[in-house]
Amino acid sequence: MKVLLIRPKPEKSTIGLQHVMICEPLELEYLVSNIPLNIKKNVKAVIYDFIVEKNDYIDILKFEEPDFIAFTGYITHVNTIKKMCKLAKETLKDVLTGVGGVHAEVVGGDFKCDYIDFIYTKNAVDGFNETLQGIIDKKDIQEIQEGIRVIEENEFNFNLIQPDRESVSRYRHKYYYMFHNPCALIKTSYGCPYNCSFCFCKEITKGKYHSRNMVDVVDELSSIDEKEIYIVDDDFLFGREKLLEFTSLLKERKIDKNFLVYGRADFIAENEDIIIKLKEVGLRAVIVGIESIREKDLLNYNKKTDLQINEKCIMILKNLDIELYATLILPMDFTKDDFRNLVKWLRGLDVTFVNLQPLTPLPGTEIFSDYKEDLLVSLEDYHLFDMAHVILRPYNMSNREYYYQILKSYYRIIIRPKHVIRLVRKYGLRENIKMLKGSQRVSLQYIMKILRG
Ligand code: SF4
C-alpha cells in the first residue's frame, strides 16, 4: 500500500515567516517512525513537502498512485488542503484522504467536506495507524472511521518513537530558521503550563503539560546531523531541574549543538544562572513573547509578566550575547503614539528582531468569542489568519494606516546601521543578503496591503 504524507505550501496571499524560515515537517516524520512493524511491512509511506518540492502535485499523484494521502497544516492551510483533497479524488478514483495537524486537533470541524475522509482531532499518530490497518484489512470508509478509537477529553499519547528524519533526507538541506542554517527540529515537551488568553498552543493539549525524559531527548539530539537545533516546545525554559539535567547531559556526552528555543521573559529574568549554563552548552537564540509594553494588555492577555520583567529579560539576553527574537501583539486600539512608544522602547533596548503581530483571535482560543463579531474577514478566509493580516478593525486609524504603521515600525526597529554592522560581523554577508531578500518579500506584501487597503 502506498501512502503519501503531505505538507502543503501556504497560499500566496498568506503573509508569513516562510520567507525567512522553512522548518522540517516534524509531525510527518513522527507519523513515519510510529507506524507499527506489522503495518510497516505492508506500507510504503513517502513525505512530500510542498514548501520545497518542485514537482507538480498532479504529476506526483499520477506517478505515485497512492491509496491514502494524509495532510498536515495550520489554519492558513485549510482551504489549500481541501482543494488538494478534491484534486486527489478527481485524479485517483479510489484514493482516501485524511488530515491532522494542530488546527485539525483544535477545530477539526473546519476540515469537514466531501473530499476528506478522516480528520484526526486527537492523537493523530494512533488514528493514522488505525486508518492504515483498516485499509490493509480492506474495510470501507465508514468501518475504518468507526474503528478509530474514541479518545477521552484529557487522554493524550505523549510516548512516541523518535521521528524518522531520514524520511525527508532529500529536503533536509533546505531547512533553516533565519540565521540557523541548516536547522533541525526537536520536540522535548508537549503543551504549556501557562494560560495566556490569546494562545492557540495551550488548546492543543487542553492545558496539559508533559516533558520528555531528558536522557531520551539527548539521545535523539546525538543522532541529529545538523548543528543548529530549533527546540519547538511551546515553552522550553520551564523547570530548573529539567534544564540542569539537560545541560549536564550535553556536557557529559560532549554534544556540540547550537540551540534556538522558546522561553518566557519571567523565567529568563528569574533564572539568569540557568541561562548562563544553557549558553555554555550552545543556547544561541530565544523567541520570547514580550507581547506588550502596556500593563493593561499584559493583564488582558493573562501573560503574568510586566514591563520590568520584559526589560530584565532583554538585558540578560543582550549581556550574554544570546539573540532575542521578540514577538509582540498589536492591539486594535493602538494609536500612532502607541506605535511610536513601542518603537522607542524597543530601539532603546537595542532589540534587533521583532515579530509584530496584529491581534488575531484564532478559532479555538479563549479570546475568539470576544472578537468574533469584529472580524473584518470571513471565517472561511483561513489563509488570512496568519498573525500578520489585520483581520479586526483598528479603532483609531484606517486599515491602510495600521499596515503602514506596522511596516514603518519594522523598518525603524530592524534597519539601523549598528544592527546591520553587528549582523554582518556575526553571521556573514551571504546569510544577511538571504535574510534581506526574504524580509523584502514580506515588506512587499505589506506595501500591497497599504496600496490596496
Ligand atoms: S503564549 Fe506561550 S507561555 Fe502563554 S500559554 Fe501560550 S505557549 Fe504558554
For the record, give the distance between the C-alpha atoms at the N and C termini, rounded to a whole number: 49 Å
Approximate shape: globular
Strand order of the largest sheet: 8-11-12-13-14-15
- CATH top level of the largest domain? Alpha Beta
CATH level 4 superfamily of the largest domain: tm_1862 like domain
How would a crystallographer describe the biggest sheet? 6 strands, parallel
- CATH architecture descriptor text of the largest domain: Alpha-Beta Horseshoe
Number of strands: 15
> Which structural category do the helix and sheet elements fall into?
alpha/beta
Return the domain count: 2
- Determine the oligomeric state from the structure: single chain
Which fold name is given in CATH as the topology of the largest domain?
Answer: pyruvate-formate lyase- activating enzyme
> Over the alpha carbons, how many angstroms does the gyration radius reach?
22 Å
Number of helices: 19
pLDDT averaged over residues: 95
Write out the distinct hetero groups bound to the structure: iron/sulfur cluster
Brief write-up:
This protein has about 450 residues and is an alpha/beta fold. It contains 19 helices and 15 strands.
Verbal overview:
This protein is of the alpha/beta class. The protein has 2 domains: 2-147, Cobalamin-binding domain (Rossmann fold); 175-452, tm_1862 like domain (pyruvate-formate lyase- activating enzyme, Alpha-Beta Horseshoe). The chain has 19 helices and 15 strands. The strands form 4 sheets. The protein has a 6-stranded parallel sheet. It has a 5-stranded parallel sheet with strand order 3-1-4-5-6, sandwiched between helices. The protein has a two-stranded antiparallel sheet with strand order 2-7. Helix 3 crosses helix 4 (78-91), helix 6 packs across helix 7 (141-147) and helix 18 packs across helix 19. The longest helix has 24 residues, at 429-452. The protein starts with a strand and ends with a helix. The mean pLDDT is 95. The protein binds iron/sulfur cluster. The site of iron/sulfur cluster (SF4) has 11 residues, from helix 8.
